[in-house]
Amino acid sequence: MKKIGKILLWGLGIFIVLGIIGTIIGDDNGSDQAEPSTSTQVEEASTEAETANKDETQENTQEEGNADVYGIGDYVEVGKLAYIVHNVETTDILESDNEFIDPATTDGQFVVVEIEAFNNDTETRMVDSTMFKIIDDQGREYESSSDVDVMMVMDESLNLFLQDINPGLSKTGKLVFELPADVTSYELQVSSGFALAGGEYATIQLK
After folding, report:
1. Among candidate residues 95, 92, 133, the one with its CA nearest the CA of residue 109
2. SS3 state at 139
3. pLDDT averaged over the chain?
4. Which residues neighbour 73 within 8 Å (Cβ) at sequence distance 6 or greater?
5. Strand 186-191, strand 201-205: pairing
6. Which end of the chain has fewer CB atoms surrounding its CB within 10 Å, N or C?
7. DSSP H helical segments within 66-188, as ranges?
8. Could you say which residues of the chain have pLDDT below 50?
9. What are phi and psi of 190, to 5 degrees?
């Protein structure tokens, strides 16, 4: 009887040990099966993020493509004002019709812009040459020239210095900018108003 009892105890012990081993193996298999699921989730999240980034890039590209590009001769509205650039000339010397006035010269180039400003407001608006600037392809900005020699040779009737424009009317004038001689690509930035009346801008490609 004692021998039978010992055999039963041994058998029970072996059964318990086998059960513990089986439980451990089962846990390992469960862990191994869970890992691919986690990896798959990471891959799916990464794919979704890449897709979202591509969509955003495409949207930005479309928005940039839809931006208005103005050129010479276009009617450009900015706030309650509008502009048309009628002509652009480049030279290194500006001469007056008055033989007693010396010409203005530069080591660079003068860019002369003939522009018409329209007042679409219900009240008188002021236009001034400081409302305009040229920006070249390197991002450099140039204000209209206030040089005395340049002002002397310009036709006074085409001067855009503090000019009032009544509602529904327009004013044509010339702007002179002095740029380096090697600048070959640039645009004109126009404003919605003088001083505090401004704040909105548009650009017109000149060259």
Report:
1. 92
2. coil
3. 81
4. 84, 85, 86
5. antiparallel
6. N
7. 148-153
8. 2-3, 31, 34-36, 42, 57, 60-66
9. -115, 150
